């Protein structure tokens, strides 16, 4: 009897656990190492994860479905026509490639 109860409880709860995990994985987050790269390279002065600051939120940029390569290129050669109503972003040509690559991959991952 006791065993049956446990089985029933497990059956009832497992979809709940599944959906909770599913939702957490969809919530955009900024891991500490990424935040450090964004701060070091001054991105955080103008960008926020979910809110408009000077520039658009990273979650909005992610919705444009760029590839990581395109994002890397747009940081070095911004195209302000992509963001009407925003001031143009200054070209940032001195971000180390490895760091820019990590940032770009993270932005792409926000849309997954
Ligand atoms: C001085 C403010 C400022 C800084 C610093 C800044 N940005 Fe921006 N960024 C903007 C603005 C404003 C826009 C929207 C207008 C534009 O794209 O020119 C933008 C747009 C973007 C876009 C979207 C490009 C597109 O065409 O859709 C990306 C990606 C981006 N920024 C990444 C970064 C990263 C990564 C850093 C740090 C290395 C950074 N930005 C630093 C202001 C800034």
Structure, described:
The model has no long low-confidence stretch (mean pLDDT 88). 58% of the residues lie in helices and 0% in strands. The protein has one domain: Cytochrome c-like domain (Cytochrome Bc1 Complex, Chain D, domain 2), CATH 1.10.760. It starts with a helix and ends with a helix. The chain is built from 6 helices and no strands. It is elongated, with a radius of gyration of 20 Å. With 112 residues, it is an all-alpha fold. It has helices at 2-26, 32-40, 43-46, 58-62, 68-76, 97-109. Helix 5 packs across helix 6 (97-109). The structure holds heme C (HEC). Heme C binds at residues 41-43, 45-47, 54-56, 61, 64, 71, 74-75, 78-80, 82-83, 86-90, 92, 95, 103.
Radius of gyration: 20 Å
Name the CATH superfamily assignment. Cytochrome c-like domain
For the termini, the CA-CA separation is: 43 Å
The kinds of small molecule bound in this structure are: heme C
The count of helical stretches stands at 6
The pLDDT mean sits at 88
Count of strand segments: 0
How much helix, percentage-wise, in residues?
Answer: 55-70%
Assign an overall shape.
elongated
- Report the CATH topology name: Cytochrome Bc1 Complex, Chain D, domain 2
Global structural class: mainly alpha
Per CATH, the class reads Mainly Alpha
Biggest beta sheet attributes: none
Report strand %. under 5%
| CATH second-level architecture | Orthogonal Bundle
As for the number of domains, it is 1
Order of helices and strands: HHHHHH
Unreliable spans are none
């Amino acid at each position: 009897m006791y065993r049956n109860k446990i089985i029933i409880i497990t059956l009832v709860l497992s979809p709940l656990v599944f959906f909770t995990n599913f939702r957490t994985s969809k919530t955009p987050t900024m891991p500490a190492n990424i935040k450090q790269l964004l701060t070091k390279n001054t991105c955080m002065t103008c960008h926020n994860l979910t809110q408009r600051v000077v520039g658009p939120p990273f979650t909005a940029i992610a919705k444009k479905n760029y590839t990581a390569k395109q994002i890397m290129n747009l940081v070095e050669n911004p195209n302000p026509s992509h963001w009407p109503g925003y001031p143009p972003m200054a070209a940032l040509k001195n971000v180390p490639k490895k760091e820019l690559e990590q940032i770009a991959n993270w932005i792409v991952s926000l849309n997954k």
